[in-house]
TrEMBL record:
Protein name in UniProt: Rubredoxin
PROSITE patterns per the UniProt record, alphabetical: RUBREDOXIN, RUBREDOXIN_LIKE
Classification via SUPFAM superfamilies: Rubredoxin-like
Keyword Ion transport: no
Cofactor entry: Fe(3+)
Membrane-spanning intervals of the chain: none
Organism: Streptomyces aureoversilis
Family in the record: Belongs to the rubredoxin family.
Domain Rubredoxin-like stretches: 7-58
Amino acid sequence: MSEDVGKRAWMCLVCGWVYYESLGLPEEGIAPGTPWEEIPDDWECPDCGTTKADFVMAPL
């Protein structure tokens, strides 16, 4: 696995919301440092409700 895992960002193509692995999403039970690959496949964007499939890796 890449040394950058846990430090990447993933952007929603629908609304532009960004998931930062380093920050996680504690309010949804996702701890800081959680890699994108460990986010459940049925997880949805907290802003628009689209699926994980509609996210792309974003530059930091």
